[in-house]
Amino acid sequence: MDQKRLQQQLNFILEIDKEKNVFRQTHLSGGGRAENDAEHAWHMAVMMALLAEYADAEFDLARGMLMCLIHDIVEIDAGDTYAYDEKAKTTQNDREERAADRIFGLLPEDQGAKLRALFEEFDAGVTPEARFARAMDNLQPVLLNNANGGGDWRRHHVRRDQIEKRQIGTKRGSVSLYNLIEEIIDKNVSAGNIAPAAEARTPDKETEKGESDDIA
C-alpha cells in the first residue's frame, strides 16, 4: 500500500466534508431549512439515475453521476454564488478556479486530474453527460421551489424571464424536462409565486455557469 497516496485520498475525503456547510438559497421541500451543497449534489446524482430515460442523447451514467457529485466542491472555498447576483458573478470564475487548484490538488495527481477534468467538462456543458448533468442542476431547485409553495421565488422576487433564461441549458439536455419546467413556471406565475416577465422574450443562448448554481 502506498501510504502517501492513501493519505492524500483521505485528506481529500475529509476536505470535501466541508461541502455540507455550504448552504444554498433553495430550501428543502415542504418549507424546511435551506439545503446545503452536498445535499444538492446527492439529489442531482439520484435524479440523473432515475430520469436518464428522458435525456436527448445517450450518456455514461456512472460518469455523469460522478460529475453531479463533484460539480460544486469548489464552493467550499469559493462560496455559493446566488444566481442573480451580478456583482458576485464577475468574480465567480476566478474564485472557483483558485478553489479547484487547491481542492483537487489534494489528491494524487492522476485522480486530481480526472476529477478536475470532470469539473471543467460540467462547466463547459458540451458533452451528453455534462448537458444532462446541467439539466439536473437546473431542474432540482425548480422541483424544491415548487414543492415548498414557491417561497424562495417569492422571497427573491424572481421573474419568469429570469428563470427561463437559466433553463435554456435544461433544454439542451432534455426537451421533455424543459417542457415540464415550463408547466411548473406557468402554474407558479398563475399562483403569484413568480412575477410575470419584465418583457416578452425568448432566451437565445445558454446562460453562464454562475447562473445555474442556485435558485432556478
From TrEMBL:
Coiled-coil residues are none
Keywords carried by this UniProt record: Hydrolase, Metal-binding
Basic and acidic residues: which segments have biased composition?
A: 201-216
Q: Which GO terms describe its molecular function?
A: 5'-deoxynucleotidase activity; metal ion binding
- One annotated Gene Ontology cellular component of this protein: cytoplasm
Highest taxon of the lineage: Bacteria
Q: Which residues form the HD domain?
A: 16-166
Task: List every stretch annotated Disordered.
Answer: 195-216
Query: Pfam families annotated for this entry?
Result: HD_3
Under InterPro entries, the record lists: HD_domain, YfbR/HDDC2
Record's PANTHER family? Answer: 5'-DEOXYNUCLEOTIDASE HDDC2
Q: Can you say what this protein is called? A: HD domain-containing protein
Q: What organism is recorded for this protein?
A: Pseudoramibacter porci
